Amino acid sequence: MVILNVKTVSSQGTMMKSEKSHMLSTLKKIALRYNPSEVFRSAFASPKATWAYYRRHIKAPTLPSRMMIDPINICNLKCPLCPTGVGTYGARRAKMSYELFEHILSLNPNVRMADLYNLGEPFLNPDIFKMFKLCREKDIRTSTHTNLFYDRSIIDQMLENPPARLHLSVDGATPETYSIYRAGGDFNRIRENMEYLSDRIRKTGKGPAVEWVFLFHKGNKQDIFTAREMARRLNFQFFVRPLVVPPHLAPEWHDPEDLKKVSASFHMNVVCPHLWLKMTIKPTGALAFCCFAYDDADDIGSLADLNTPEELLALWNEGIVRRGRTCFQRKGTFREISKPMLCETCNVYKRSNGLDPKKYPYNTHAHDWMDREFPPPNVKK
Ligand SMILES: C[S@@+](CC[C@H](N)C(=O)[O-])C[C@H]1O[C@@H](n2cnc3c(N)ncnc32)[C@H](O)[C@@H]1O
Ligand code: SF4
């Protein structure tokens, strides 16, 4: 926030009107994004886990209060930079059964937040509605991400048992720009579904908090303003983030100026929370390092084979997970690791160990600031 304040004060020391309103909208986004209930549930519901993360302890004292549980790794779209969309994926395709989901929740008495998505279209699993319902009965707050490319009846079922937060992945405001990345999708149908969803929520006064997240690239960024206006009309929150692209493909997808802004907008070195605060479970029930660890060869073990929370805690402290945590030891105590492991190929790890952030500019987090770079045409930057 300090950085933001510095940036938004003009050279005369007075704040321009557009800058002020941008700051207010940013504050509103922070409040909505870091919903107090979610912050509390993920950080304070399991204070020992939070402390272990803060101190970077190698042994986790307790199970985390947040779990990412992927209900399915199959999709109806073919997004060209998504491992599921392109099929460059060393994972067995699977749909999680409701029984396995129930079993997973029973293994973690600390869980207070469940993110039901990762590498597929969650609503292709017909049991997802029951999963949301079970979470609500257990006072577990849920969220999911969706492409919204399906029959309206799915929306009806979802509204009967909604997640607390619904993230819509819609990257465009016309059929042409939308399908540059969302290959196989039909924007007109998705727009109708958005209208329908908004209308149902307005009429019933019930439903998830909806956020439209627009991943921009050079082929769709001219739509940002139109999309933001549409989101306002539909009463959805609106966020703009960069499409994450491997460095060798970056010139194909992004204008050089935008790439510079993306790298400049995030210079914080973070310690990866996944190894302490958020457990990632694949549709097969396998425990993964994080949401990027989709290859079955990197699985740590399977929750389907466990019977008690103690067994799960033991798996959470398996040798390989502890080795992952050693990657994030504080500077000075950083341990040399004899054999490279998954975390060492990740930008979060590289940055946390002080490697050149300009060389590893991409991070999917904390890019909501980016929409200040694309103001409406009548606002002076
Ligand atoms: C793999 S998707 C699975 C959920 C659902 N199918 C969807 O697309 O929302 C999970 C998240 O990854 C995002 N995503 C996909 N490709 C991306 C990319 N190249 N850069 C950044 N985020 C991406 C999606 O927009 C979505 O928010
Ligand atoms: S819609 Fe989601 S899961 Fe499907 S291909 Fe696109 S990003 Fe991947």
List the main descriptive attributes of the protein structure presented here:
TIM Barrel, binds iron/sulfur cluster, disordered C terminus, globular, 381 residues, nine-stranded mixed β-sheet, alpha/beta, 16 helices, disordered N terminus
Structure description:
This protein is an alpha/beta fold and 381 residues long. It has a single domain (36-372), classed as Aldolase class I (TIM Barrel, Alpha-Beta Barrel), CATH 3.20.20.70. The protein contains 16 helices and nine strands. Strand 5, helix 11 (224-234) and strand 6 form a beta-alpha-beta unit. The longest helix has 18 residues, at 187-204. The chain is globular, with a radius of gyration of 21 Å. The protein starts with a helix and ends in a 29-residue tail after the last helix. The chain binds S-adenosylmethionine (SAM) and iron/sulfur cluster. S-adenosylmethionine binds at residues 75, 79, 81-82, 117, 119, 121, 145-147, 167, 169, 215, 243-244, 364.
